[in-house]
């Protein structure tokens, strides 16, 4: 009926879906949305219709996106133990330390536990990497990204 190819319609629907989902994710204001679609070169009437479509459906789109988001496990508690092997039959004097960690997680109203074991040097390296990552989160660049994600 439209005398337009199937591919053109499919790309149009995908583009409109992408525009509405990304705008809803970022909860952009009316002015920002209008600036975003003004670049596309549509008529003023079509721009107003797209803005009204966005304003009418952004809460519903956000709720659907929240339902589709993966439910990642969250931290509940941590138990740890330091084991040291002082000797064996073949080696009378040896020191072989090992750190055992039991990580309790909550996922979908259920508690699960993961048991991890490592040597102290690897654990120290892991701690340094995590501290470095936390330090990165304090930079202006990361703060700007996190602010835009909310």
TrEMBL record:
InterPro entries: COMM, Commd2. Pfam families: COMM_domain. Residues 74-141 form the COMM domain. It comes from the Eukaryota. PANTHER family: COMM DOMAIN CONTAINING PROTEIN 2, COMM DOMAIN-CONTAINING PROTEIN 2. This is COMD2 protein. It comes from Thalassarche chlororhynchos (Atlantic yellow-nosed albatross).
